[in-house]
């Protein structure tokens, strides 16, 4: 069975000459929850955007479900992207914001309506569907943005630091809901984060990246069968994993600095 | 103080100031026996309003007609011009200087030329008023159409939105607050343009407006009628402003405070 997304020898060099991605190999299997973590500027967002085909790679091969990007969007091969900002339309009610991707695909209203309601229920916003974004808190706006991604019933969900701007309590709660949503539905997810705790809590596989040039430094596997709840967050196992991952991150950061010394004038 | 009381006070206070001013004005005129042809008391103005009612109302109709027609033309033409200019950077660079030249030339200086060139008086008046009212529509619509949230634009593009979808569902709604602010400013300028043009044209007869009434009252030393006409112009301006603010609020109120 072909991976959901496969990247082989993918490089990205920006016009400015920045080597954002040195050759990267990555195969994402169905149902995986992958976190990308690493120091700022190591190319996490760039890697995610290559996966989303927002950026074309400079070299290497990317395949979605074993095929090229033109097949993405068809039934069973849907992809959704959640940005760091909610990017909602301020002039549209929550339900209209969530319906946007269906409208752009010209899905008839009768089909769209139950899907929109279901997506909003999934993120716990069933009671504010007639509200405007300005009437929502930061956390609720992010939920609406996630509902807008879920409404297309994606098979692959890409998220770039979706909860980075939220306070810790809200972030923990949304992490819990995200984990439930993704694991219960077997949704394949790639999640960029700055937070090591968030990565451990959510992921079945954490990809640690290093910078200069951006590359995959190492991987950390976490049993996907673990229930992602508050008990997990407080467990010794969780603390152990955080410590292991923290060590790996430190090594990745040193590798970064050593590499940086090598190239700086 | 709770917010409702504060809001009530915000309404009552200016009314009180107005009533006091009128009272003092009336009392001063009577007390010092100021002649009506020098400075009329409020009661004299009300009497004049009543006595010259039909004539003043007719003049009001004329002025209002010129104002509203030029506002309509400004909004339609101004939006069309902005939509064309926004299509290409070069187009905007080539024509914007002329739009600005149009804006910085005082209308009172151009009006005599227009009156001479355009045969029909009402058409000349509309042209004058449109010339100054159109500028805020063009410039605000241009700014509005350019002010699209880059995140949303990326989202639309990622979902393979067509040009038409981009325009209808992203650009136009994004531009609406700036556009409405432009229309509100244009409504005030259309009235200014109409009044200035009437002064310059100085035409009486059927198309005599409020400005003509003011001119005539001046010649005849009928100062109360002058005040009455002025009062009607002010009320027109206020009603236009209030109407525009209401439309703005209805269109945008819930999601965004109008641009001020
Ligand atoms: N559009 C672009 N044009 C040129 N250079 C870019 C562009 N986007 C990113 N870069 C560069 O590529 C490198 C990787 O950037 P990227 O945004 O992927 O990092 P990141 O790991 O997501 O960082 P952060 O954690 O701060 O979000 C950086 O050096 C950045 O300056
Ligand atoms: Mg980033």
From TrEMBL, chain A:
Which keywords annotate this record? ATP-binding, Nucleotide-binding, Transport
List the residue ranges forming a coiled coil, or say none: none
Q: Where is the ABC transporter domain?
A: 5-236
> Which CDD domains does the protein's record reference?
ABC_NrtD_SsuB_transporters
Please list the GO terms describing molecular function: ATP binding; ATP hydrolysis activity
UniProt xrefs under Gene3D superfamilies: P-loop containing nucleotide triphosphate hydrolases
Pfam families, A to Z: ABC_tran (PF00005)
Q: Which family is annotated?
A: Belongs to the ABC transporter superfamily.
Q: Know the name of this protein? A: Nitrate ABC transporter ATPase
The organism is Komagataeibacter intermedius AF2
UniProtKB/TrEMBL annotation, chain B:
State the InterPro entries in the record. Answer: MetI-like, MetI-like_sf
Is Transmembrane helix there in the keyword field? Answer: yes
For this chain, one GO molecular function annotation is: ATP binding
Keyword set for this entry?
ATP-binding, Cell membrane, Membrane, Nucleotide-binding, Transmembrane, Transmembrane helix, Transport
User: What span is annotated as the signal peptide, if there is one?
Assistant: none
Question: Mainly localized where?
Answer: membrane
**Chain ranges passing through the membrane:** 6-25, 32-51, 63-86, 98-118, 124-148, 175-197, 226-247
Could you provide one GO biological process annotation from this protein's UniProt record? transmembrane transport
Output the superkingdom of the source species: Bacteria
Provide the ABC transmembrane type-1 domain boundaries: 60-244
Annotated membrane topology: Multi-pass membrane protein
Offer a single GO CC term for the protein.
plasma membrane
Instruction: Name its cellular compartments.
Output: Cell membrane
Pfam name, any one: BPD_transp_1
**UniProt family annotation:** Belongs to the binding-protein-dependent transport system permease family.
Q: What is the protein named?
A: ABC transporter ATP-binding protein
């Amino acid at each position: 069975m072909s991976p959901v997304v496969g990247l082989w020898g993918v490089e990205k060099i920006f016009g400015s000459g920045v080597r954002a991605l040195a050759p990267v190999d990555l195969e994402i299997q169905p149902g995986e929850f992958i976190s990308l973590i690493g120091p700022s500027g190591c190319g996490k967002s760039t890697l995610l955007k290559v996966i989303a085909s927002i950026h074309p790679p400079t070299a290497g091969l990317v395949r979605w479900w074993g095929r090229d990007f033109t097949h993405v969007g068809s039934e069973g091969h849907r992809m959704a992207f959640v940005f760091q900002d909610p990017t909602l339309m301020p002039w549209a009610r929550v339900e209209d914001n969530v319906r946007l991707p269906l409208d752009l695909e010209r899905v008839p209203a009768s089909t769209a309506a139950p899907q929109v309601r279901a997506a909003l229920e999934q993120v716990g916003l069933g009671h504010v569907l007639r509200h405007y974004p300005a009437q929502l808190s930061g956390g609720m706006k992010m939920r609406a943005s996630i509902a807008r991604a879920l409404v297309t019933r994606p098979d692959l969900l890409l998220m770039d630091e979706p909860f980075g701007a939220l306070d810790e309590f809200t972030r923990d709660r949304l992490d819990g809901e995200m984990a439930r949503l993704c694991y219960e539905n077997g949704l394949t997810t790639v999640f960029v984060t700055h937070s090591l705790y968030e990565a451990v809590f959510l992921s079945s596989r954490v990809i640690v990246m290093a910078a200069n040039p951006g590359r995959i430094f190492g991987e950390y596997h976490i049993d996907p069968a673990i229930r992602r709840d508050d008990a997990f967050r407080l467990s010794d196992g969780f603390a152990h994993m955080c410590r292991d991952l923290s060590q790996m991150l430190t090594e990745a950061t040193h590798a970064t600095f050593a590499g940086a010394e090598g190239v700086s004038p | 103080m709770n917010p409702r009381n504060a809001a009530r006070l915000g309404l009552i206070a200016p009314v009180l100031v107005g009533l006091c001013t009128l009272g003092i004005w009336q009392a001063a005129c009577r007390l010092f026996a100021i002649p009506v042809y020098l400075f009329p008391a409020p009661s004299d103005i009300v009497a004049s309003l009543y006595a010259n009612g039909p004539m003043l109302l007719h003049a009001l109709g004329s002025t209002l007609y010129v104002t509203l027609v030029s506002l309509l033309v400004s909004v339609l033409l101004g939006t069309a011009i902005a939509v064309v200019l926004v299509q290409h950077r070069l187009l905007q660079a080539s024509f914007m200087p002329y739009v600005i030249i149009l804006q910085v030339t005082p209308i009172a200086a151009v009006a005599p030329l227009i009156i001479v060139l355009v045969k029909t008086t009402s058409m000349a008046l509309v042209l004058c008023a449109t010339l100054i009212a159109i500028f805020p529509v063009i410039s605000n619509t241009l700014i509005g159409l350019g002010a699209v949230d880059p995140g949303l634009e990326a989202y639309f593009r990622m979902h393979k939105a067509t040009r038409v979808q981009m325009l209808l569902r992203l650009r136009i709604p994004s531009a609406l607050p700036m556009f409405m602010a432009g229309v509100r400013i244009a409504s005030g300028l259309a009235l200014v343009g109409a009044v200035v043009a009437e002064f310059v044209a100085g035409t009486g007869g059927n198309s005599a407006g409020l400005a003509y009434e003011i001119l005539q009252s001046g010649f005849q030393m009928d100062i109360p009628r002058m005040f009455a006409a002025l009062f009607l112009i002010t009320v027109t301006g206020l009603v236009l402003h209030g109407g525009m603010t209401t439309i703005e609020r209805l269109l945008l109120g819930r999601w965004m405070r109008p641009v001020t």
